[in-house]
Amino acid sequence: MLKLLDFFFTGFHTILIIFNLFGWIVPATRRLNLIVLLVTGGSWFILGIFYGIGYCPLTDWHFRVLEKLGFTGLPDSYVTFLVQRFTGHTINQSLVDTMTMVCFFAALIGSVWVNIKRKKLIKN
Questions:
Q1: Mean pLDDT across the chain
Q2: Phi, psi (degrees; rounded to nearest 5) at 75
Q3: How confident is the model over 94-112, as a mean pLDDT?
Q4: Residues 96-107 as b or e (16 or more Cβ within 10 Å = b)
Q5: pTM reported for the whole predicted model
Q6: Cβ count near 116 (within 10 Å)
């Protein structure tokens, strides 16, 4: 069961990250993308007040599963974990954190932009 949960979290979380980054590009998913980005930001910055900035419940739950599977020394960042898991390479945590924030805010700006633009087009 734990291996199934690991597979689920790896797949779902990875797809969610990709959707956060690129879901604003597809007209049919723009509104949902904005909502998911706002929930992600809320988790990172509001729940982050209590659990540490960048807190993600999915990462927390997945890492608990991984610990029960015997994984040790898990990184602070899920993106770092994915890079290590799929490439076997360790990369600088602060670089990952910076790139994650830059990409998140770029996607958020893109999503807000296309959602506002869409509303203006609908009104006209």
A1: 94
A2: -75, 170
A3: 97
A4: bbeebeeebeeb
A5: 0.91
A6: 11
Judge whether 37 and 113 are in contact, CB under 8 Å: no
- Relative orientation angle of helices 2-22 and 78-87, to the nearest 10 degrees: 110
Residues contacting residue 96 through CB under 8 Å, at least 6 positions apart: 77, 79, 80, 83
Per-residue DSSP letters for 30-86?
HHHHHHHHHHHHHIIIIIHHHH-TT--HHHHHHHHHHHHTT--S--S-HHHHHHHHH
**Location of structure tokens 């830059």:** 102
Tokens 């974990």, located at residue:
81
Among residues 2, 17, 91, 11, which one has the least CA distance to residue 56?
17
